[in-house]
Amino acid sequence: MRLNLTGKRFGRLIGIRPIGQTKWHEVIWLFKCDCGKKKYIVGKVVKRGDISSCGCLGTETRANNNKIHGASNTRAYRAWHNMKVRCNWKKSKSYKDYGARGITVCNRWRKFSNFLSDMKQPELGMTLERIDNNKSYCSENCRWASRLEQGNNKRNNIVIEHHGEKKTLSQWANTLNLKYSTLRQRLFVYKWSLEDCFIGEKI
Predict the structure, then answer these.
(1) Taking the CB of residue 58, how many other CB atoms lie within 10 A of it?
(2) How far apart are CA 29 and CA 182, in angstroms?
(3) How far apart are CA 166 and CA 168, in angstroms?
(4) What's the per-residue H, E or C state across the chain?
């Protein structure tokens, strides 16, 4: 059934008339925005809520964010934005490891001002990390971490216990002053024990 969007409102947009089709036979509509601009958009995209203005809403939101907290171009803001994309945008390459696994952003952090209040601005080189990778984004489960710390906290890390001390394979390689690939080969190809690696008896 063909969509009839004439006179209907979707956010700031009001449907005027259909004007053609895409090569995939999707109906393109002419919309008028509350700001006065007119724009051609695929009707079903507007109907499902993906677009709600001619673009002016995003511009105003960014301007307001910058006016309110003066931090829209900072490392904290980029981390906040990327966090939401990973959890909410299904087309994101990272969505399968976040949103698709049920990782969400807490209600409080839906506003950047709250995120900034809880986390502050990170130091140069620090990135946003979840302490427990199976839990969602919230102040109790997040910290600013270096890329090395982030790498050591990945879900797919190999963790080895030696004399009661647990470290990732990367951390043990650093302790032994070995390349990661060298230690991995000794342990899993040549079947050395970690103790052998410490003693260095086998070459």
Answers:
(1) 12
(2) 60
(3) 7
(4) CCCCCECCEECCEEEEEEEEECCCCCEEEEEEECCCCEEEEEHHHHHCCCCCCCCHHHHHHHHHHHHHHCCCCCHHHHHHHHHHHHHHCCCCCCHHHCHHHCCCECHHHHCHHHHHHHHCCCCCCEEEEECCCCCCECHHHEEEEEHHHHHCCCCCCCEEEECCEEEEHHHHHHHHCCCHHHHHHHHHCCCCCHHHHHHCCCC
Q: How far apart are CA 120 and CA 87, in angstroms?
A: 21
Q: Any idea which residue has 């956010």 for tokens?
A: 11
- One digit per residue, the tens of pLDDT, for the chain of length 203 reads 578 999 999 999 999 999 999 999 999 999 999 999 999 999 999 998 889 999 888 877 766 666 555 566 788 999 999 999 999 998 888 898 889 989 999 999 999 989 999 999 988 888 898 888 888 999 999 999 876 555 544 544 566 776 777 776 666 777 778 777 787 777 777 778 777 776 664 44
Query: Taking CA 6 as the corner, what is the angle to CA 4 and CA 10, rounded to the nearest 5 degrees?
Result: 95
Tokens of 33: 């925005």
What Rg, from alpha-carbon coordinates, does the chain have? 25
Q: CA-to-CA distance for 108 and 139, rounded, in angstroms? A: 9
- Residue extents of the structural domains in the chain: 9-54, 71-145, 159-199
